[in-house]
């Protein structure tokens, strides 16, 4: 592994880890090998970047995220803002690592030996719509009223139907979300609930999970997915860097 102090080009910075963290052999942007720049209790993850003016492509962003998530699988890591470049290791130490020592220490204490998992639960629209039609006569009658008509002919009915469906989905999500949270939260160090982005969303949860509990957490999420099969879909991503708990440093 190359000594970062001997690299004669700019350094791209991915994130910060505890100084004692064991870092696997990885490549980052442009296929360059990841090296570390130590400073007191922390170390920065970097790779050479000969031409920083060209940075910012989708492939660069994917490489940045991939490095952080691969590190998160084995060690605590604080993600650096995408696109952070310094001219050399000395500048990184003197102007980034040392001045931010307290912030890094606080955030690393917060996440402990944990990584983030992101879980999204979403209704299967057709399945839950069938439930709403059976449960709410107005939805059923409005669907019959607009069948075979144009949007202009039944504009008001369509608007009302859309409102009722969204309200019904929200009501059902409010019933389902606590059950999912109660199954996962006992396995979590911390959770952050994100705002729903679609009417079908039941729950969008970022979960900080200690490494010894991650297998149990994944098994619990899988069990929830099996219980909801055909009605609720579950998407689990992780381990990830703790973006929702520390932000980008």
Describe this structure in words.
With 249 residues, the chain is α+β, with helices and mostly antiparallel strands. It folds into two domains: 108 residues, no CATH class; 132 residues, Alpha-Beta Plaits (2-Layer Sandwich). It is 42% helix and 23% strand. It is built from eight helices and nine strands. Strands 1, 2, 3, 4 and 5 form a five-stranded antiparallel beta sheet that branches. A hairpin with a 2-residue loop joins β2 and β3. α4 crosses α5. The longest helix is centred in the last third of the chain and has 30 residues. The protein is elongated and about 70 Å long. The two termini are 25 Å apart. The model has no long low-confidence stretch (mean pLDDT 91). Belongs to the gas vesicle GvpF/GvpL family. This is Gas vesicle protein GvpFL. Pfam families: GvpL_GvpF.
Question: What are the salient characteristics of this protein?
Answer:
Alpha-Beta Plaits, alpha+beta, 5-stranded antiparallel β-sheet, 249 residues, 4-stranded antiparallel β-sheet, 9 strands
List the SSEs and their pairings.
Elements lengths: L10 E8 L16 E5 L2 E7 L9 H15 L5 E2 L5 E2 L2 H9 L3 H11 L2 E10 L1 H11 L1 H10 L8 H30 L5 E4 L7 E10 L3 H14 L4 E9 L2 H4 L3
Antiparallel strand pairs: 1-3, 1-4, 1-5, 2-3, 6-8, 6-9, 7-8
